[in-house]
């Protein structure tokens, strides 16, 4: 089965927005095992949209479109699909009623132009969109499929997961199950090397992804029944764990901060942070984690020597060149001032290599609980932003290891 | 002149990366006044790449490609362009020498496969790429142009700005000058309404963009000579300023934090921040601003009542429901503890509307200098993340107004 993706909207051709719908759908299709060979963007112009849609319809089995389902005159996706298939658009009374209710709940009368969104053609089934006014279309004709979804990513994702994915899974005649295993502290090349010992297999598949909070391994299994797919994924996960061991810190929706939080809650402990150089990334990460009020006491961000002194750091240390020592002192400061069981201090330094523009840097992460430890992280990164974020993840990974020890 | 963009690489069809090259180039083309009607992505497959390239060549005047210029067998952009035009690829001795030197400077011998990157065809001029090994191609034949650029965004941007843009500007026979005017605190709809009084004009053009740190207005003028284009842009900027007045906070590369920093440095003042709810966004923004060590004393992030008390807030206040009062106290605390001339305190609260998933919220921003002020910001946002970020920008905008008063 061959799919094709079309993103519709003149704002895409003006470079006003970045198209995240296409990579989202492309990734979903790869997991489903559906081949994707072409993606394109086209503007709100009838002739060009019809031409591009016709080409997609002719060369692919499934065409996924996003955009063009709004109520304005520029929203022509429905009209063009109708023209392509030679079918007539009619207002569906139930869709119309649902739209009228959507506006009524917000205390507004439905604007005239929104009636366009209640239309269907004979080959189309409307797909519910509770987050917006535009229902999608699932169109089937002559053994081919067009799925027309809204442009706003939140609305599209919801419709895809709840309406489209189940229908497509039925078509592929199989259940797909995935699991994302998350590791940290080891390079992608090294992880690939370690996993090379596993017997290669077309099903389940393994794919690695490099993210800021580590290297992810995605296991995907395809089977007739869910229980079979689950068995295959569980088996492959066990294989991966046997090889990767404790560089694995979580799976699926786990985040480094949620893992740290869980470990702290389990042991009725709390953490506080003092950061310099990383500008607050660790504090922010913990401050936005679910349930953080149960374990996060807060963070002190000191951008300068004066600020460090103002927060209580010894003046000699505040100006010290020995960054490891400063990080240690900041961990102790955070723990004491914010009355936490564990204090984390982060200090760092970086330079810029003039020729290549690369940023060599070192981050010092200290933890203060019963004893004070310092973890040095050498980094040679093209982007300071990445280095700072990664330092926050190193700190969380260290914290979890500390708590488990 | 009609342009078309092609992003080449199978990783795009697997959804492994987000294509930012296309919106970057689309935006650049819109500023140049070159029409863009189609963009597409295609994988590292000869037949499909040739088919897509041929279609682009036939229907457009300029084809911009990114990707496929690496040294591996999957990098086929050069080969496909050669096939399309019926020309033969030959190794250019100078390009080869430059490649050999590139590796020598890093203490490596050039790998065999990189020789592919030193090839050209008769209709192609090599475009320098100092940040990577792949030169680009500027190809002209039969009145049409193909520009093949590297995939990595950093390398592509550099080549575009330094090699491609000047050549294209010569082709369009005009100079394009743009200026971005940045406003804050007024909705896009209201800004559009205010600007509707301006006489509409095809040159210079006006376009508005909604960003997290405000509404931007882009002026673009096209003229034979730069001095003429500059005169037109200056004139339009004056018109816009006459209407928008003090909702304008900066132009072009100005950031809210750089404007705040400039105002503080001018008056030899300093600022410190105490944040709750916004989780450190304001602190981080100031901590990463250029020259911030001259005016930013640091930030205190208190995620909980206990943390606020640990930092010195009165226990009654730390638990208070009166968020405006808490914000005021936090501004005073930041000013005193971090020894700054101005303290900013941010407190907030939000709920979640179960039906729509929308997040109504209120953020309280207090400033403490000679007197203590509080600014309340009502917000009804779909995304908590956006609200928190916008609160930081409200705080900076308020700070600049305070300093100018």
Can you give the mean pLDDT of chain A? 87
What structural class results from the helix and strand content of chain A?
A: alpha/beta
How many individual β-strands of chain A? 17
Question: If you consult CATH, what is the topology of the largest domain in chain A?
Answer: Molybdenum Cofactor Biosythetic Enzyme, Chain A
Q: Percent of residues of chain A in beta strands?
A: 25-35%
- CATH top level of the largest domain in chain A is Alpha Beta
What Rg of chain A, in angstroms, do the CA atoms define?
27 Å
How do the strands and helices of this protein lay out in sequence?
The structure is a homodimer of 405-residue chains.
Chain A: E1 2-8, H1 10-13, H2 21-32, E2 35-42, H3 46-59, E3 62-66, H4 77-85, E4 90-91, H5 93-104, E5 119-120, E6 124-127, E7 136-141, E8 144-149, H6 153-171, E9 175-183, H7 188-195, E10 205-211, E11 214-223, H8 226-244, E12 248-251, H9 256-266, E13 271-275, H10 281-287, E14 296-301, H11 305-310, H12 315-318, H13 323-337, E15 342-350, E16 359-368, E17 372-381, H14 384-404
Parallel strand pairs in A: 1-2, 1-3, 3-8, 13-14, 13-15
Antiparallel strand pairs in A: 4-5, 6-7, 7-8, 9-11, 9-12, 10-11, 15-16, 16-17
Helix pairs in contact in A: 3-4, 9-14, 10-14
């Amino acid at each position: 089965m061959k799919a094709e993706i079309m993103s519709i909207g003149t704002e895409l051709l003006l470079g006003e927005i970045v198209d995240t719908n296409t990579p989202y759908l492309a990734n979903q299709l790869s997991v489903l095992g559906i081949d994707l060979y072409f993606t394109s963007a086209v503007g709100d112009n009838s002739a060009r949209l019809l031409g591009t849609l016709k080409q997609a319809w002719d060369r692919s089995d499934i065409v996924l479109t996003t955009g063009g389902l709004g109520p304005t005159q520029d929203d022509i996706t429905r009209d063009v699909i109708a023209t392509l298939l030679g079918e007539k658009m009619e207002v569906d009374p139930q869709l119309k009623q649902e739209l009228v209710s959507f506006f009524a709940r917000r205390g507004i009368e439905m604007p005239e132009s929104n009636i366009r969104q209640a239309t269907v053609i004979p080959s189309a089934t409307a797909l519910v969109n509770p987050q917006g006014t535009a229902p999608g279309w699932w169109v089937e004709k002559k053994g081919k499929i067009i799925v027309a979804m809204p442009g706003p990513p939140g609305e599209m994702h919801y419709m895809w997961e709840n309406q489209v994915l189940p229908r497509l899974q039925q078509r592929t005649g199989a259940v797909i199950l995935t699991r994302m295993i998350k590791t940290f502290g080891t390079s992608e090349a090294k992880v690939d090397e370690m996993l090379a010992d596993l017997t290669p297999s077309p099903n389940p598949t393994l794919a690695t992804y490099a993210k800021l909070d580590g290297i992810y391994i995605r296991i995907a299994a395809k089977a007739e029944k869910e229980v079979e797919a689950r068995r295959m994924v569980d088996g492959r996960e066990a294989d991966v764990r046997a090889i990767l061991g404790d560089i694995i810190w979580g799976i699926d929706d786990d985040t480094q901060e949620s893992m740290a939080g869980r470990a702290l809650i389990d042991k009725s402990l709390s953490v506080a942070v003092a950061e310099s150089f990383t500008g607050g990334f660790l504090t922010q990460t913990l401050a936005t984690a679910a349930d953080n009020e149960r374990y996060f006491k807060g963070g002190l961000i000191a951008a300068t020597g004066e600020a460090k002194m103002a927060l209580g750091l010894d003046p000699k240390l505040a100006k010290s060149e020995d960054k490891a020592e400063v990080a240690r002192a900041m961990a102790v400061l955070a723990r004491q001032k914010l009355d936490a069981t564990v204090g984390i201090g982060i200090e760092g330094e970086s330079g810029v290599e003039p020729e290549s523009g690369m940023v060599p840097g070192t981050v010092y992460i200290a933890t203060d609980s019963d004893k004070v430890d310092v973890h040095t992280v050498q980094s040679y990164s093209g982007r300071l932003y990445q280095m700072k974020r990664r330092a926050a993840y190193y700190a969380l990974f260290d914290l979890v290891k500390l708590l488990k020890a």
